[in-house]
Design brief:
alpha/beta, single chain
Length: 330
């Protein structure tokens, strides 16, 4: 049966791209969409910054037709601000609004936003209700198992948020205190999926970094879909590889060097188009190591790519990479 969020049909077992700060911008989303991501989200956006009209946050509202379906993710600690931010985000015409109740980093959680709401479920429910009432779009939530091992309260969270109108719930299989350490535990996610009261899609998130894991966990934990984050950085092919395996039971060959170069060029081009040359080049530097991970003796080229400061020089370097490795192969 197809998974639906409101009236958005995501197919039988959707793979979602996680919202990641300083990563999930439109250029990165473009290459992930090309490789089969079924649904994507903006980087998370501060409700307070949106209301203040902060330039960086307003830019994060940029979405493009080719990205659909796409959600705008917001976070905050003040219910009124979240209501106002929802109305601003709705005007940007996404397909849905997502609320972040999972971010564990200090400058978010210690200001009463993100995962810190897991310490005050009543406030979380009231905030969610305000967001749902402030938009005609479907509202979804991303959260964690709880604040720490003693307070794994996501089972209650799932029921109460469904009751105030959310249309899907993504659960990261760690507590806030775990941050991104240790292993994600999906057993509580499965318990929620099996809860007869739960009618909304439950999406699993955390540690999906291989085809084998995706296939095993799909069966073991009975989720409706999976959200992939860090494993897609520099490797958008993870979406197509998992989908191909689900459809055929066969492993796809990994990307060729030519495909890596094409994705890198596309990402770079989109980055410069969206941010301007200087910023586009600077922000692309964090991606080269990931795009060419595992390519032998690549360090010298990576250093050159990171140091290059013009579009022309970067494209010349990528051409040199292609020629060098073609001659090595011969």
């Amino acid at each position: 049966m197809p998974v639906k969020i409101g009236n958005i049909d995501l197919g039988d077992f959707p793979l979602l791209l996680a919202p990641m700060e300083d990563v999930s911008d439109p250029p990165f989303r473009y290459v992930c969409k090309q490789q089969g991501a079924d649904m994507m989200y903006t980087e998370f956006i501060s409700s307070e910054a949106l209301i203040r009209d902060a330039a960086k946050s307003i830019q994060k509202l940029d979405i493009f037709e080719y990205e659909r379906p796409i959600g705008i993710q917001i976070f905050g600690s003040n219910i009124e601000s979240m209501r106002d931010a929802t109305q601003i985000a709705t005007r940007a015409r996404p397909d849905l609004i997502d609320i972040n109740y999972g971010c564990p980093v200090k400058n978010v959680a210690c200001k009463g936003a993100g995962a810190s709401l897991l310490q005050d479920i009543d406030k979380m429910v009231a905030m969610t209700k305000a967001v749902v009432e402030a938009t005609h779009l479907p509202v979804t939530v991303k959260t964690r198992l709880g604040w720490d091992d003693k307070t794994k309260n996501v089972y209650e969270v799932a029921e109460r948020l469904q009751d105030v109108g959310i249309k899907a719930l993504t659960i990261h299989g760690r507590t806030r205190s775990q941050m991104y350490k240790g292993q994600a535990d999906w057993s509580l996610i499965r318990d929620i999926r099996r809860n007869p009261r739960i009618r909304i899609p439950i999406i699993g998130n955390g540690d999906i970094d291989s085809i084998e894991k995706a296939a095993a966990w799909r069966l073991e934990y009975e989720v409706d879909g999976m959200m992939i984050g860090r494993a897609a950085i520099g490797y958008p092919w993870i979406f197509r590889e998992i989908k191909h395996f689900f459809a055929t039971g066969e492993r796809l060959e990994g990307p060729t060097l030519g495909e890596r170069l094409d994705a890198c060029r596309t990402h770079l081009t989109k980055s410069i188009e969206w941010k301007g040359e200087k910023k586009g080049i600077f922000e692309m530097r964090r991606h080269y190591a990931n795009y060419f991970k595992g390519i032998p003796d690549f360090k010298e080229y990576r250093m050159k790519l990171v140091q290059a400061d013009t579009t022309q020089h970067l494209f010349q370097l990528l051409e040199q990479v292609e020629e060098h490795y073609a001659s090595v192969a011969d």
